[in-house]
Amino acid sequence: MSKHGRILVAMSGGVDSSVAALMLHEEGYEVIGVTMKTWDYADASGGKRITGCCDLDSINDARTMAVSRGFHHMIIDIREEFGDAIIGNFTSEYMAGRTPNPCVLCNTFIKWEALLKRADMMDCQLIATGHYAQAIQHPGGRWAVRKGLDPGKDQSYVLWGLEQKNLARTRFPIGHFHKSRIREMAVESGFPELARKSESYEICFIPDNDYRGFLKRKEPEATARLAHGKLVSVEGEVLGEHDGYPFFTVGQRKGLGIATGEPLYVTEIVPETNTVVLGRKDDLQKTIMHVRRPNFQLVEALTGEMEALVKIRYKDKGTPATLRMDGERVLVEFHSTVTGIAPGQSAVFYCGEDVLGGGFIDRP
């Protein structure tokens, strides 16, 4: 009989989730490791060996580690849910002139539901992952994600979408540690090969990092119709042509297909007219944005005005801002200008170290 009961642990085969499983096993939990198959990796690789989160080698690594320590491991197939929700959203967002972040959507809206569904089937009250974050219950009972101890690895940004019912059942064992210590723990536990594993930053279903090629294969007729769109300046002057607005993102500088005497950036994408607007870096600076589909953790709802630090991308240091509801969207008024607000990306609101909430940046 285990000391703390059963816990379902998401195991990608990487060092972080593997050490998380080892820690919980040593603490006395009855660990059930689960690796999720999200994509047909052989088809996606184009004959190349792919590495990192969720590939076939990593699935085997997760199973080998679990078996060696005597706890259960299983593979669950969520390709159908993943394809419909994540890949469908990925293509539709680009076609809507936005830049999606599929890993945020997958983490909070697909994997958590899949994990909790299996946890209920196997009588596991809790689930755990290898994210660098913390789950904190505040006075009054509400749960919120808190930043991981290692500022260089903190993953709270991608977890803003976790709802209360799911966050209350989630544990992040490695959130109190630095990455260097996690690698040391892998070596100390007898898994030096895990400590040496490189990290993958590619989108799992686009291992060659060519999202434009992926869109052309998924939406061949639609993307072909968008060729010969206009590149225009912020003043309205036609500067050239492009192959389709889905192949651009706000803030992009390289690959614009034109030569000018000064650096130009994508400042706006207008799907209705198949137009990509280019401007100088100053034209990317904004003080206001709207955020759709918000989810709040620290508070039940946003009432009146609230002050928060707002991050508009994963590596963003954040900018102080005032938040208020504007219909069903959050109106964010920054206290200073920010550069490169890209519709479709996540905006995450912080109160101190804790996630107040977040949502998807909307088009103006």
- The chain-level structural class is alpha/beta
How helix-rich are the residues, as a percent range? 25-40%
H-E string:
EHEHHEHHEEEHEHHHHEEEEEEEEEE
Profile the largest sheet. 6 strands, antiparallel, barrel
- How many separate domains make up the residues? 3
- Report the CATH superfamily of the largest domain: HUPs
CATH names the topology of the largest domain as Rossmann fold
Discrete helix count: 10
Q: What sort of overall outline do the alpha carbons produce when their principal axes are compared?
A: globular
What is the CATH domain class of the largest domain? Alpha Beta
Strand content: 25-35%
Cα-atom radius of gyration: 22 Å
CATH architecture of the largest domain, by name, is: 3-Layer(aba) Sandwich
How many E strands? 17
Mean pLDDT: 90
What do you see in this structure?
The protein is an alpha/beta fold. It has three domains: 6-130 and 172-195, Rossmann fold (3-Layer(aba) Sandwich), CATH 3.40.50.620; 226-279, Roll (SH3 type barrels); 284-361, Translation factors (Elongation Factor Tu (Ef-tu), domain 3), CATH 2.40.30.10. It has ten helices and 17 strands. The chain has helices at residues 15-27, 41-45, 56-69, 79-95, 102-121, 164-167, 179-188, 192-195, 211-218, 220-225; strands at residues 6-10, 30-37, 72-77, 126-128, 133-137, 143-147, 170-171, 229-233, 238-242, 265-270, 275-279, 285-296, 306-311, 319-326, 329-339, 346-351, 354-361. The longest helix has 20 residues, at 102-121. It is globular, with a radius of gyration of 22 Å.
